[in-house]
Design goal:
about 140 residues; mainly alpha; flat
Amino acid sequence: WSSGEGSIINYITIHTGTLPGGGYRPFHKGMTLVHETGRWLGLYHTFHFKCNNDGDYVSDTPMEAAPNQICDYNRDTCADNETDPVWERDPVWNFMAYTDDDCVIAFTAGQRTRMHNIIIAERPKLFAASRRFITTAT
């Protein structure tokens, strides 16, 4: 990951209106911070490679063709993609999608593993005081 510890590009920036109680609706419940932390820990957007390859380099993340800001659980932009047979819908629920804060609820197991691996490889001091946080990915 290109901006590990010691890098001058080692920060997260968000609009204060996206924090809980903020006025930047519908992104006002703090999920932008979760999303940007995911980016800081090596995740890509769910639509990064559209309906090709692993979409976001994580095999268990459903692919989607384009960003979406509407919480539509029936949205399916990769319907004809035979390489994605398990997932029938776009991951509007995923923190790495662009969906509003009321809709996003989770990372996939593979995304959690990727973040875990980035911490170990690129940000080992992040949990240095408590090594138990980086010994097991969940």
